[in-house]
Amino acid sequence: MNEPLAERVRPKTLEDYISQHHLVGEQGSLTHQIRKGTIPSLVLWGPPGTGKTTLAQIIANESKRPFYTLSAINSGVKDIREVIDKAKERGNLFTTKNPILFIDEIHRFSKAQQDSLLGAVEKGWITLIGATTENPSFEVIPALLSRCQVYVLNPFGKEDLEILLKRAIDEDRVLKEKNIELKETEALLRLSGGDGRKLLNIFELVVSSEPDMKITITNEMVMNKVQKNTVLYDKTGEQHYDIISAFIKSIRGSDPQAAVYWLARMIEGGEDVKFIARRMLISASEDIGLANPTALVIANNTFQAVTIIGYPEARILLSECAIYLATSPKSNSSYTAIKKAQEAVRQHGDLSVPVDLRNAPTRLMKDLGYGKEYKYAHDYQQNFVDAEFLPDAITGTVFYSPGDNSREKAIKDYLDQRWKDKYQY
Predict the structure, then answer these.
(1) 3 state SS of 152
(2) In sequence order, which ranges of 327-405 are alpha helices (DSSP H)?
């Protein structure tokens, strides 16, 4: 059997597991639960090759639970129900601990498929572990997400990747037959993009293409080997993140030519249409914002439309939206405003709401003066009253500063007419 290197050296125990110390280190948030065997249903969210599947298998081994696995790519509701029935039967017959059902790429499951898991999770017939590279807030239905803990896995750091390489050389039954010297690792680490599986795949490609038993790994050698064998676009690897970054930065930089090019790269590589549309939705708010609020409407409509239409026609809608966003005036004033406001909340804590702004649903609250001095703006000329709406400790603080574009210049004029004696923009 031609088993890949990444599978041959997959860790089997928690002690052998590399990285993710915030989860499974000595003080990790999952370590105690794993050792006690009290595992909640959970979703492991992180980039490809960060150990999600491995961690799920280790959790099952360490907690001594039956382990079932499904891939969202080729499993349907029928497959889910069959596994749940087996898990119920086995759990009742052989153990008091409910079995673990691991679902890889759970973000690819439809709403109906995710719905079919709810009863089994809620009744405790299974402990669900889902793995996803996409934000579960968008891709996992709220009812299922509320029944799971979400744990974030980080890309491997340089030290982790080097440990992974050295362990493969020292312990793999195939590599041990060769005399391998890791003279330079920078190229391998850079090409991996923090993806452990990709690192091992590249390393295996380099080693297997060398006929000699003695192999010295250098940066030049790695680049020569890889450039002859890599594909144009890997939607689950490093380029997935590099190209979407180039795409969004081209939109932010108001270059529609570059935006359409990077869009085409993703489309030709088979990138998820919703992933592209979602990132444009974020850009419309973060990079364009109040300079052209219609951009958010168009991006949202694009997201909804391409979700229904799909490829190949969706490429036209994506192109139209990308060009519109790239050619729109830009402002990040809303993004900056909420960042400043959050910093103020962290700095000053939970400041009291001014008494006149408080809600007064009970007689006691009314007697305490809640809302008594509140001035109703619509009772005044131009629907405006000069009142205080911030806590006393931060009165006069400016969070939102209008951007330098025609629409926000009009907003600045509007604010200056009303607040020129209080706020300085």
Answers:
(1) strand
(2) 333-348, 363-367
Distance of CA 278 to the CA centre of its chain: 12
Last residue of a domain, one of 171, 202, 227: 227
> Which residue, of 152, 173, 193, is where some domain finishes?
152
Q: Are residues 74 and 41 in contact, defined by beta-carbon separation less than 8 angstroms?
A: no
Is residue 360 domain-resident?
Answer: yes
Instruction: Return the structure tokens found at 372.
Output: 């008594």
In this structure, are 168 and 45 located in the same domain? no
Question: pTM (2 decimals)?
Answer: 0.59
Same domain, 103 and 30: yes
Q: Which helix (H) or strand (E) holds 127?
A: strand 127-132
Place of tokens 């239905």: 141
Q: What is the DSSP letter of 77?
A: H
Round to whole Å and give the CA distance between 17 and 31.
Answer: 12
- Domain housing 385: 345-419
Q: Let me know whether 148 and 163 are in one domain.
A: no
Are 148 and 179 contained in the same domain?
no
What would the 3-class secondary structure string for 179-193 be?
EEEECCCHHHHHHHC
Alpha carbons 24 and 16: distance in angstroms, whole number: 11
Cis ω for the linkage preceding 312 (within 30 of 0):
yes
pLDDT at 306: 94
User: Hunting for tokens 């290197």 — which residue is that?
Assistant: 5
User: Is residue 139 over pLDDT 90?
Assistant: no
Give the tokens for residue 305. 């439309």
Measured distance CA(52)–CA(30) in Å, rounded: 13
Q: Please name the amino acid found at residue 70.
A: L
Alpha carbons 80 and 70: distance in angstroms, whole number: 8
The predicted structure's pLDDT at residue 255: 92
116 vs 141: CA distance, rounded Å: 11
Q: In this structure, are residues 215 and 179 in contact, taking their beta carbons and an 8 Å threshold? A: yes
Sign of the alpha-carbon torsion through 187, 193, 196, 201: negative
pLDDT digits (tens, 9 = 90+) for 291-347: 999 999 999 999 999 989 888 899 999 999 999 999 999 999 999 999 999 999 988
Pair 95, 207 in one domain: no
d(CA 310, CA 306): 5
Instruction: Report the candidate in 216, 181, 182, 223 with the shortest Cα–Cα distance to residue 202.
Output: 223
